[in-house]
């Protein structure tokens, strides 16, 4: 126990706590101070737990600490295996509970910090089974699990990269070796240039070599194009497969569907199409024909003067007056049977209008659906032209995920092999370095022996002679091979040029004849185009004039139609008002008192009397409220003071009760320790 406290005090006096405790001061800490110290240590592991325990209830503090200790996988000692006793000791701040927890936490702070960081992302959220039956929730849960697995893999790779990092000394050695190799290559290029300059026709040979390089580059580009076309072919085959799958699905749906539902759909479609053919389209055609007839009649008539317009307006006024007279006569000769028929006619007209409106909505929806389908096809074609891929189906996405997982496992294996090869490479480098050091030591020893014998430099001279002779023989072989290859290349290129000239001679003759024909056709096309432009300009001017005239006539027709509808609406409203006035007059003149009460005048008179009586009552009530306002305010102030007094008493009672409960818990903890 003493060693445990000594370890805790040493760790708490270091960074980042810096508490400046000793054994006596640490042992004399109270329960609240121990709980705050434990909360600080937990806050260093997980910053979310860096809180002041005075701002939360004891139950919340214990629950928070127990939750984090469970995540960190802390197991109580054998003497406190009972979880209820451990919880009680954690609530009361018992030293026998807090000290082992602090010792365990301070022993492995860095490890627990990593574990707490990972717990924020890897503690799985349990979803009830009944919620997982929903497809959307199930998809989100699956994505959540996949992201957790991806986070685990990335964290492992991150840790491996931290462990298997290359040292700076190895990188510097690689850079120095690369620089030496670069210098050697530059010197070798200079030597080859000097040797090539001594060869005859070296410029021509260099030009031929350049052409060969260009042809090779062209061959590579053609190979790349071939690869791209193969990939495009693969995409097209995939699209074909998806289309076949969709066709099979549609066939499956059709096979699974019942004949009653198919017949019902066909009947609905037939009814809709028959309505369009028999009712809607003929009516629209008739209206269009009449409008065209009137427009043609208007166009055929001569231009109207202001006098003609005034005459037409006077005729319209006379016709409206006659219509009003006829309407009045009809109202006078009104019969109930006509009212019933008019009601049915009105309902039938309303139903027909609704039917027409729904048919138009259905037609518009079908047109919109077809336009959206065309847009989807266009977008797919554009995405395919831009090199993108189409949207994957669920099965294709599952196959892609399985392939990706297999590739991921293969990638991990290859990465492990690379790590092993890198380690082996480091060992070989170290072995090479040791052998080089031994070689240098042997060379120094050999030089010392040569100096003793009086033949210093003999071994170095012999090595240089052997190296120069080997280089000379290699260069002679390379030179002979280069000259032979270049001569053969020149012969092949000359033969290829001759073959190309012979094959292109008839094509060039045909091309000359075609160019002459092209010039003649171009000249004839220009002449025809000039004639077409002049004719199109004349027709365009005539068309614009006719469009302006038709536009003016359409506006005039629309204005007249709106005036007609306005007059018709005013007529209907006046008829309704007249009918109401007649009913009111009839009720007011009627000798029956029940009928007279239904009159609007009597109703308004009765409402006015009721409102006057209500106003009198409200004025009396206002007077009473004004007289009793002062005493009532004093009484309300007294009740507020009484309410504050009772609230203070309730708070004092709750504080006294909490203190009694904490004292009881402390007494029970003392009894348990005495029992232990």
Provide a short characterization of the protein structure.
By secondary structure, this protein is an all-alpha fold.
> What's the order of the H and E elements?
HHHHHHHHHHHHHHHHHHH
Number of helices: 19
Q: Architecture of one domain, according to CATH?
A: Orthogonal Bundle
Give the end-to-end Cα distance, rounded to a whole number of Å: 16 Å
CATH class of one domain: Mainly Alpha
Mean pLDDT: 77
What fold name stands as the CATH topology of one domain?
A: Actin-binding Protein, T-fimbrin, domain 1
Biggest beta sheet summary: none
Low-pLDDT windows of residues:
none
Q: What percentage of residues falls in helices of 4 or more residues? A: over 70%
Please state the overall shape, judged from the principal axes of the Cα atoms: flat
CATH superfamily of one domain: Intraflagellar transport protein 81, N-terminal domain
Strand residue content: under 5%
Multimeric status of the protein: single chain
Overall radius of gyration: 52 Å
Q: Which structural class is indicated by helix and strand composition?
A: mainly alpha
Number of strands: 0
